[in-house]
Amino acid sequence: MMASCVTPGTSYMSKYETAVLPEHSAPKKGRAEVPISEKCLLTLEEAAAYTGIGICKLREISNDERCDFVLWNGTKRMLKKDKLKAYLEAAYSI
Asked: Fewest CB within a 10 Å sphere: which of 50, 53, 59, 93?
C-alpha cells in the first residue's frame, strides 16, 4: 500500500528501512556533489536525512503559510537549513 504523501519514484518505507531516492536526485553530470553540512537549502529528502524527521511530516509542517523555513523555487520546495534547525530547537513537539 502506498502512502498518500510518498513522492513518485520513492517507495513506502517503515521507520527501519532506508530511503529509496528517485533517480533524478543523483548529481547531474559535471556538477560536484555538495555535502549536506555545507548546504544552506535542503530538499525534503535531504532534510529528512539531516533531521531524522519523515518526509511526510516535513511536507505537512512546511505546507503552513506561516512556515518561515520554506523557500519555493517554482514548484520545488527547499528548506532553509538554519531556520529549520532553529524551529526544531524551539519546538516541544511536532
From this structure: 93
Question: How much is the average pLDDT of 7-27?
Answer: 51
pLDDT of residue 90 exceeding 90, the answer is yes
Cα–Cα distance for residue pair 94/91, rounded to 1 Å: 7
This prediction's pTM: 0.67
Provide DSSP, the chain.
---TTPPTTS----TTSPP---GGGSPPTTPPPPPGGG-SEE-HHHHHHHH---HHHHHHHHTSTT-SSEEEETTEEEEEHHHHHHHHHH-S--
What is the widest separation between alpha-carbon atoms in the chain? 42
